[in-house]
User: Fold these one by one.
Assistant:
Number 1:
Amino acid sequence: MNKAFLEIENLKKVFPGPRGGEPLTVFENVTVGIQRGEFVCVIGHSGCGKSTILNVIAGLDDATEGYVFMDGKEVKGTSLDRGVIFQNHSLLPWKSALSNVMFAVKSRWPGWSREQVRAHAMKYIEMVGLKGTEDRKPSQLSGGMRQRVGIARAFAIEPKMLLMDEPFGALDALTRGTIQDELLNIWSQAGQTVFMITHDVDEAILLSDRILLMTNGPNASVAEAVEVDIPRPRNRETLFKHERFYQIRNHLVDFLVRRSKELSGNGGGATRTVRLAAVNEDQDDSSDEHPRRAAAGGH
Amino acid sequence: MWNSINLRAALLSLTILIVALAAWEWSVSGGLVPSEQEELSEYERLMGGASSTAGSGVPAPSAVINRAIEELSDPFYDRGSNDKGIGIQLAHSIGRVAIGYGLAVLVAVPLGFVIGMSPLMQKALNPYIQILRPISPLAWMPLALFIIRDAGQSAVFVIFICSVWPVLVNTSFGVAGVKKDLLNVARTLELSRLRTAFTVILPAAAPTILTGMRIAIGISWLVIVAAEMLVGGTGIGYFVWNEWNNLDLTSVIFSILMIGLVGMVLDTILATATRMVQYAD
């Protein structure tokens, strides 16, 4: 058994039915291993339980069945070792951008002097390009700037793992692109393990080492783990010129549009690892013809 | 533009004041009730003509202004229990409100936190709050007088009981309404429950809590006047009632205006405090 940094084993979440109705199994048999330093994105339609999986990893929610281990220890409750970047920034609205980051830094290192906390927080504020606006309140910042503060806050506590729940979902396309670049930049320096939820196929390809594809809920599961073997450093301008890009993209879109529905609810077997190899590989309809290099997961 | 609307509003306010005062002065100086002098009303006969000194008996605004100048030039004189300056009377009332209201805030804010954070406590205590809240604070007065056996402290108790509900309800409402995202942030940062309460929930709920405190101070000031009319002794409420018994309507009107003025100041203080903790979401 090859121990990954983060082990998700047979995770299942059941929500009680409304007024004693049928209980709803959102996802089941979710077994994924994530290596240290790996950047993993999850794509799936709304209602497949992506956010719930992220919350379970974060310790904010409990799974009905199954376990999550990080670094060999079971995840029980929240931890400063797992930073979370929320979709709607979730900054404390009465604190300035810098104070928000300092607040997190103080929780991480309670023994630090105020100066030390300030300097450390400022380093991350600068890293996301907010120097000069650090004294503004969140309401005085644009949506993109707020999300940058959220990113600075999450990175500033130097967690072993970062969890991002559609961090750019509420941003316009232009801002989103800039922040994706910044995120890649910070991540390549810090080298954290990242688990990120997104709806944006291009974003997933740009950022990920591996993309987990989830079938539709209820009874969703992780059907495939697509490896993105486009060499780093990547950037938005040249990414789409890479021979793999459209191959991977078509595969993802095909999955989201067609196969996520077809595969949904069949209990979720083991997750298949998919590496799209040779160019000109037939990428059209036939759903079971995709090259299968290895069956992976927690076994 | 900003300047001009303020200026115009001030001019309009002033005009309304002058017109109102002029109408008042004219109506009491015989304009409206010319036959008053010829025959005493039944009430005036009962009073032995004591109130007929100034036409209709209602004092003219000029008389009130003169009285105000007189009282305010020496607000803190003390010539025995029935003759104290307006400043002393107001100070007694403000003191009672400060103690009763202060105790209410000390009790209601922590209790409101508990109710707001615990759905169990919310469900368990809600029936009592709903039954106790609509009771007129003055209805507690006989019970308070019997148990406490001190008029002044009973008035303080009545202030306590009338301020506790708005603060309690608003605090629990504000605490329960803190965004789940902010609480999740606190959890991911591994903050202790106490630190979460003080550094996340309290600032997040502060505007709602202070709104409750602002409502409470307004009610307290309304109730203290009535309470002091009942318990007597000192305070602006007692002063008003005493001047009525003296048939000194000039002083009654003057005290009414002073009650309004102090109420406005108290409200302004709380409004400023609310603005200080307000944040844009």
Note: Residues 229 and 241 of chain B are 6 Å apart (CA to CA).
Number 2:
Amino acid sequence: MRIVPFLISGLCTAGLILVLNTQLTVGGSKTPRLGYFLSPQLGFWQNAESTNTDFSGELKLNGLKGKVDVFMDDRLVPHIYAENDLDAYYVQGYIHAKFRLWQMEFQTHVAAGRLSEIVGEERLATDRFFRRLGMVYGAEQTMANMDTDPEMKATVDAYADGVNAYIQSLKPEQIPFEYKLLDYKPEAWTPLKTYLFLMYMSYDLTGGAAATDLKMTNAKNYFGYEDFNKLYPNVHDSLNPIIPSGTLFADPAIIPVAPLNSDSVYLKYTISSTAMAPVVPDKDNGSNNWAVSGSKTKSGRPILCNDPHLGLNLPSLWFEVQINTPSHNTYGASFPGSPAVIIGFNDNIAWGVTNAGRDVLDYYDIQFKDSTLTEYMYNGEWTQAEHRKEVIKVKGKPASIENMALTVFGPVMYDNAYKNSSTDGKYLAVHWTANMPGTGLQTFYKLNRSKNYDEYINATSLWSCPGQNFVFASKTNDIAIKQQGAFIARWERQGDFVMPGTDDSYAWQGIIPLEENPMMKNPGRGFVSSANQMSTDSTYPYYLGAANNFPLYRGIIINRKLSEMNNITVEDMQHLQMDNYNVFAEMARPVLLKYLAINTLNADEKKYVDLLANWNLRSDVNEKGPTIFKCIWDSLENEVWGDEISKSKLPFPRPDAPTLLESLLRNASFIFEDNINTTDKKETIHDDVLAAFKKAYTYLVKLEKEDRLEWARFKSTKVNHLLKLPALSRLQLPIGGGEHIINAAKETHGPSWRMIVHLTDEIEAYGVYPGGQSGNPGSKFYDSFVDAWAAGKYYRIVFIGKEAAAKSEKMKWHLTFTNS
Amino acid sequence: MKFFVSIVLTAFLAFVAGIYSTIPWWSFAVTSLIVAIAIHQKPGKAFLSGFLGLFLLWVGLSLFKDAANEHILSAKVAKILPLGGSYIALILVTGIIGGLVSGLSSVTGSYVKKSK
């Protein structure tokens, strides 16, 4: 034996294996363990799913009571036929996991503040933020509450059992692609994870206030309350509310009263605070929904439409499913991570949701006796605080431990251990309805089974957070909309800023009784609709929140179009969901053209003005007008607000587009038109518009050279993979629309599920979402709906009984589940 | 003859070891070592047969997966790694990585007996 060369080559072999078995850092990101990742029998090649995969099979699993048949149609939508409800949810869990396991776990890791555990220290800031906001705390509260309801507990448990049955069946080489890429393994699913996922939705839809309330406080301090009120008004002139203006509201059960000192201590008192959330929900998280009554349709039957606008991601937030049991037969979009259908229809009714946008998160400034946070001042007495420990595991590093104090208002988010330069020395407690014991899935569980209007009202009355506009239509020709949630009975401006927390004078004075929440049934106009606008006019007896919480323009155009339409067909509704008319530009373009000194422009500059003036106001894929309009408008906002924003050391929200437009439309003298950085001159709106145009012009020339003047190229809508890897994302989609437009497809945000349900005897339904049923990037079903979605095409939904399914040509695969 | 038998045996044993997915991906380093000890060759030849055994196995297996998948996943992974989106490059890299480990292990095995 030749010892020396043996040892040398042996060491070389071991060394190479070691290198290939380690995650290497290249250019700031980590590689997978290359040897493992590339191994054809273990690594990513195993996730390269054959395009002819047979998804059929007979499964014997522990925990089922009867037999479950699942027919998968040609779009990979499972149609679950079970002999009882719990078996159906068990199989829903199994199927969700089979196609979306990595995403389900990743999303709940985000909500639980556990990303550092898999990615490393760079996600610690996000994790700390979510822990301190009380995400885990809130999920636990709601779970404890719902565990007292045997039906809901059994449902969530059965779902978890199904997910775990799948996880246990996985061989190491079968784990989803992303686990191999990031090098970790799936863990067991728990019922808490379902509640964590719902908590994430609450954050996405109401958590914006965690950043907004601090920024609004900064803005109030910077401008003073008088000017603040002009920039961040309570209501916009052109509001077209969900409940039509002029509707009479009953006398309120609660009359919220502002504390006597609120003028001096709250509204006009200035304290500095700033903190930016590492993850800020998109301001336009929201949606469109409407239902038209049979009086307005060609068939004489109602049509219900819904398109929730959320972050566009792969794998998609949504997963289509049909659940058929002796108690109900329901189809719609479900959340991987949660049992039941969230937006959909059944044999009798259809329902949809949009975000209510009401403020349900406030900060209270707490006084502690000392830095140990054991006692705080409340109603003149030192009060004992409870404590909660959050342990954040960090990959390759010691764990980070958060010690949070809990007060009567909620968890103390900002304290001496979690702060930034401006919250230094402050203790801010978060009071958020999502942190209170909620009702979880109960509303959707009941909607899945609702047969008529009364049952819809009963189901939605249980909903607490995030507040939603539930739209409804039934085969019996009822249509309705109800804004439901646990909404705080607020006095004007209550909670828009950080509030004093030393006593109960600023505390919430009650939750608005549910019968007083805005609602409407079978109105004479023949339709109901919502698009995240303010739900009522200012005669509603409670304060709804600052107007900049509520997008304005989609509501205007939807109501205008629906009023004009008659003899409506499903096709008309498809066109309406895809409508690219820009009503904001309709109002704003004349103002721009009025104040722009066109005669001072040269021929090249005039070319863009002509394009703008001759634009048909539609933000279609190939239009140049919308790009020119947007560049000039954004540039104008910078001219008007940029000087104030750059002067302030603390971040504040830019006043919203309607505020600027309506100020200009009123033609009132407008103090903010002056550039406060110039002292020799007082700028007018004419100067601002001209300056904005000149800056936009330079940019437009550049865009034209790059061939990016057409709207879709400029806007560049994409559907990002959850890890933001371009290779796994769909980029540069040819789709029009955008902000203020019914087809609300923005860059990374937009209609995440489009659904149309025609309530004929046999339900005629259509749907599409920008993703695919499989979460596996190696499957042809990964992004199979994306092109249809961008093009405005819909899939006819297959909604049939078990016997018909067994014979249907649409059904490509058949899975059976029985107890082992 | 020895050369070809080594290649086939290296590939075959690596494949069999790979079926047991609970053991690590580098299990073939052990089987390649055993083959190289059992079928003695000069270090150069041992390397080549060890390399080719795994190269051919891994290229073959990934080609098989990739063809059935119509390059859906390989095109994406070849952008992440980054190999310019070329699935051919990715398959070659796969083969070379497996081949190098196996080849080195085979060289090690060739030193167990003295060359004649």
Note: The two ends of chain B are 18 Å apart (CA to CA).
